[in-house]
């Protein structure tokens, strides 16, 4: 099993920034496409951002384009989500996920980290 552990969540004012980290337990992380998702209370989990195995290709949900940046450091088995200009509607539990096949099927998930943006 691949273990994914998110960190970096917390409480931040609107307009502020946070950087989330996702640490993977295995070096095979370097071969996986990775993604960030989020889920607000009472709502479905939604896609936030994706990065391919090398970091050379990324995509974002329209709601976060221009504000969030996904990146990875394969040497450290770690993926990041830099979140800038945070809004109250960004409040959610953020999940790290891995897509080993590169087929947009995420088969490994972290437990999530809470991000709360106050107004």
Largest sheet: 7 strands, mixed
Q: Radius of gyration, Cα only, in angstroms? A: 13 Å
Report the sheet-strand fraction: over 45%
Distance between the termini: 39 Å
Q: H/E element string?
A: EEEEEEEEEEE
Structural category is: mainly beta
Helix percent reads under 10%
Apparent shape: globular
Q: Tell me the number of strands.
A: 11
Mean pLDDT, to the nearest integer, reads: 95
By DSSP (H or I, 4+ residues per run), the number of helices equals 0
Q: Uncertain spans, ≥5 residues at pLDDT below 50? A: none
Explain what you see.
With 119 residues, the chain is mostly beta strands. The chain is built from no helices and eleven strands. Strand 5 and strand 6 form a beta hairpin. The mean pLDDT is 95.
What is the strand and helix layout of this fold?
Layout: E1 4-7, E2 10-13, E3 18-24, E4 33-39, E5 46-51, E6 58-60, E7 68-73, E8 78-83, E9 92-99, E10 108-109, E11 113-118
Parallel strand pairs: 2-11
Antiparallel strand pairs: 1-3, 3-8, 4-5, 4-9, 5-6, 7-8, 9-10, 9-11
In short:
This protein has 119 residues and is mostly beta strands. The protein has strands spanning 4-7, 10-13, 18-24, 33-39, 46-51, 58-60, 68-73, 78-83, 92-99, 108-109, 113-118.
Any key phrases for this structure?
seven-stranded mixed sheet, four-stranded antiparallel sheet, 11 strands, globular, about 0% helix, mainly beta, about 120 residues
């Amino acid at each position: 099993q691949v273990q994914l552990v998110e960190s970096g969540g917390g409480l931040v004012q609107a307009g502020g920034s946070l950087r989330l980290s996702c640490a993977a337990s295995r070096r095979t992380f370097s071969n996986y496409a990775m993604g960030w998702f989020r889920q607000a209370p009472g709502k479905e989990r939604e896609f936030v951002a994706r990065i391919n195995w090398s970091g050379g290709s990324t995509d974002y949900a329209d709601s976060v384009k221009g504000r969030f940046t996904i990146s990875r450091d394969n040497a450290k088995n770690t993926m990041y989500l830099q979140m800038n200009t945070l809004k109250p509607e960004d409040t959610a539990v953020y999940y790290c996920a891995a897509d080993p096949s590169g087929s947009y099927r995420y088969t490994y998930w972290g437990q999530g980290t809470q991000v709360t943006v106050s107004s």
